[in-house]
Amino acid sequence: MAFVRPIALALTAHLALVSAGHAQPTGGPPSDVDIQASATPEGIVLSPATIELTRGEYYRLNLACRPDQDGDPSLAFDLADFVRDLHLRVLTVDTIEVYLQGLSFRALQCEGEGKVSFSFYPMRAGDYEVQVTDQTEALEPAALSISVE
User: What is the residue range of the signal peptide feature (predicted)?
Assistant: First the structure.
């Protein structure tokens, strides 16, 4: 019985050290990543069209839909593959915040000019493509490329 306690203590210490490397940092605001989306006669324009993130860091993705000369955009962002590998925190639409602890979503749509944000921790490295489509089907889809290292 005397040998069980040192083994249990060693196992507990090992698990604590292993877990510490994967723990989410606390405190501090998220790093903002701004994406502008607009529907132009040439197609859907994303600026920037590529972003790079680091696994385990805290981010806020700000998606802004901007009007063009023909009026308000009607764009959809298919985020299903990307958000599957995130720890989501807060979804913000205008001044409304939705705390997503343990919840998810698969897409966001702009039915006019506006901005939506969500904060998150990327949990897996990988490359993701967020398809952005015009809900009027008048324009070819575009893709936002996201790389998590």
Answer: 1-23
In whole angstroms, how far apart are CA 63 and each of 7, 13, 27, 79, 89?
Answer: 51, 43, 24, 12, 16
- What's 60's domain CATH number? 2.60.40.420
Would strands 59-66 and 31-40 be described as parallel, antiparallel, or unpaired?
parallel
What is d(CA 103, CA 42) in angstroms, rounded to the nearest whole number? 37
pLDDT in tens, 73-119: 789 999 999 999 999 999 999 889 999 887 889 999 988 888 999 99
Give the 3-state secondary structure of residue 87.
Answer: strand
Amino acid at 48: P
- Domain of 109? 29-148
Is the pTM higher than 0.85? The answer reads: no
Q: Residue 93 falls within a domain, yes or no? A: yes
Quote the radius of gyration of the chain (alpha carbons, Å).
Answer: 20
What sign does the CA torsion over 68, 73, 78, 79 have? positive
